[in-house]
Write a structure and sequence with these properties.
The structure is a single chain. This protein has 182 residues and is an alpha+beta fold. It has two domains: 101 residues, N-terminal domain of the delta subunit of the F1F0-ATP synthase (Peroxidase, domain 1); 74 residues, Glutaredoxin (3-Layer(aba) Sandwich), CATH 3.40.30. Helices cover 63% and strands 14% of the residues. It contains eight helices and four strands. It has a four-stranded mixed sheet, with helices on both faces. A hairpin with a 2-residue loop joins strand 3 and strand 4. Helix 2 packs antiparallel against helix 6. The longest helix has 20 residues.
Length: 182
């Protein structure tokens, strides 16, 4: 885990505690999502925030002008601290960590479902329900098509990977055969 990830988790945890105390967790999450998506989509904003020649107060003013109407005081204050400390590169990671912390508090988990072909919504919901019963959490699934899997699916929930793909089975078979050949 990189140092930035650890720092982002700390900011996210502190922000979650503040939002929890204020009863605004879902609102803060939506506001962070808006800001993170804007940073991901607009390289100019990210470039501006990373310029060392621009004073932190100017960066904060730009963010307030851009998101002030869509961000609460808690979010703006957190961004102010992040930018003042020169950690603007972790804003997107703070959102991702906040989402994970909030989901865990609500008994949710995010899953990435990899499949060789696009699954129907019904199939994706079925996978989410199945893994929900395994984990005891409400699974929020997103899908990524990965043709290299050949068939089947892989499901990543947090740090765990459940591999039911054909390519995974072939890899395990090859390892078994190689170990027995020695």
């Amino acid at each position: 885990m990189s140092r930035d990830t650890v720092v982002a988790k700390r900011y996210a945890k502190a922000l979650f505690e503040l939002a929890s105390a204020a009863g605004t967790v879902s609102e803060v999450e939506a506001q962070l999502k808006l800001i993170a998506e804007a940073l991901k989509q607009d390289a100019e904003i990210e470039k501006f925030l990373s310029l060392p020649s621009v004073a932190p107060t100017a960066k904060i003013d730009v963010l307030k002008a851009a998101f002030g109407n869509n961000a609460s005081g808690i979010v703006l204050d957190t961004l102010k601290v992040i930018i003042t400390r020169g950690r603007q590169a972790i804003i997107v990671e703070v959102y991702e960590a906040f989402t994970k912390i909030a989901g865990e508090a609500l008994g949710q988990a995010h899953a990435t479902v990899y499949s060789a072909q696009k699954l129907t919504d019904e199939e994706l919901l079925g996978v989410a329900a199945q893994f929900g019963s395994i984990t005891g959490k409400k699974i929020i699934a997103q899908q990524i098509v990965e043709p290299a899997l050949l068939g089947g699916i892989q499901v990543r929930i947090g740090d765990r990977l459940y591999d039911g793909s054909l390519s995974g089975k072939l890899d395990r078979l090859q390892k078994t055969l190689n170990s027995k050949a020695l």
